[in-house]
Amino acid sequence: MRKIAAIGGIVFISFILTIVAMFTKLWISWSIGKFSYGIGIVPYHSNSAGWFTAASWMVFISFGLFIPLILVVLFTAYKVHHDGCCHSIRHCFNSICLICSIIAVLEIIAFVLMAVNASRYVKGASISLGSSAYLDLVSAILIIVATVLSGHASHHDCH
């Protein structure tokens, strides 16, 4: 029961970090003289470069995948609470592991796309990754921890 509670807590924190990263406007920040600017992925910019659009959609998809992930975590917590961690629950933990893996890959690729291409966004300005990109990276790291915990619970705790 402790592992599913830890998985649920980590998934919730990662979900909040993804929401904050998605809706804040500091994915890429730049300054020209004394003026500082930033851009986020929401609202969607249809005229952006291809790498920016791809990174935006990866974050949107990972945000959407959190909904079934949270539902599976809640269902698994309910089943573990009532039936214990038996062999029939193993597929639930494997589902959590799969969805977490997809989310982690999407968020890491989005971060890498932003990090590699940020210097091309505005010519003649001092450009850096903003805090939103790093929040997305922290969310991906936390979701990797949830992936490992759910995989461990599936293979070691569900007999």
From TrEMBL:
Keywords: Membrane, Transmembrane, Transmembrane helix. The chain crosses the membrane at residues 7-28, 54-80, 92-113, 133-153. This is DUF2975 domain-containing protein.
